[in-house]
Write a structure and sequence with these properties.
The longest helix is centred in the middle third of the chain and has 18 residues, at 89-106. With 155 residues, the chain is an alpha+beta fold. It has helices at residues 9-15, 21-30, 35-45, 89-106, 119-127; strands spanning 4-6, 48-53, 60-68, 74-81, 109-115, 131-139, 144-152. It has a seven-stranded mixed beta sheet, sandwiched between helices. It has one domain (4-152): Gcn5-related N-acetyltransferase (GNAT) (Aminopeptidase, 3-Layer(aba) Sandwich).
């Protein structure tokens, strides 16, 4: 059974003060929003938004999802998590891979941008089969370096 479920506003409220420092830095750099504002925005904009839960006690450890674009073949993927996400790394990686593959079956092209300082996310993206296609040197409100990434379904 997957250790994720559809997200709720309560999940966002629980996670906002518990996000990883790298995720907080990425939020500030990209949008300048506070963590709760970013989580709620992602929750409401997402086509499908899920909460990862700790299998030991069912508490939220992260939120992730996909946002459709005007192109039916293209969608943006995103994730934010607390440090607790690393408590069960093998489980997280296995379920992440299955979810990314299932979303990529629906949307042939997945993309987004990652703060180049967010090394955990970069390693995760590489493990999930995303490739990095462009460094944007002055991205977001802080004009930091972000890396554009993409995963294209094999056809």
């Amino acid at each position: 059974m997957p250790h994720y479920r559809p997200s709720t506003v309560e999940d966002a409220e629980y996670l906002a003060p518990r996000l990883r420092e790298a995720d907080l830095s990425e939020i500030r750099a990209a949008s300048g929003n506070d963590p709760l504002q970013s989580l709620l925005h992602s929750l409401h904009m997402g086509t499908a938004t899920y909460t990862m839960v700790d299998p030991d006690d069912d508490t939220p450890v992260g939120i992730f999802g996909v946002v459709e674009t005007s192109d039916p073949d293209l969608a943006s993927v995103w994730a934010m998590a607390s440090p607790q996400i690393l408590k069960h790394p093998k489980l997280f990686m296995r379920e992440s891979r299955a979810w990314v593959e299932s979303v990529n079956d629906i949307y042939p092209v997945l993309f987004n941008y990652v703060d180049e300082r967010n090394l955990v996310h970069i390693k995760w993206l590489q493990a999930m089969g995303f490739i990095f296609i462009h460094r944007h040197l002055h991205f977001g409100v802080e004009r930091r370096t972000f890396i554009e990434f993409v995963r294209i379904r094999d056809v």
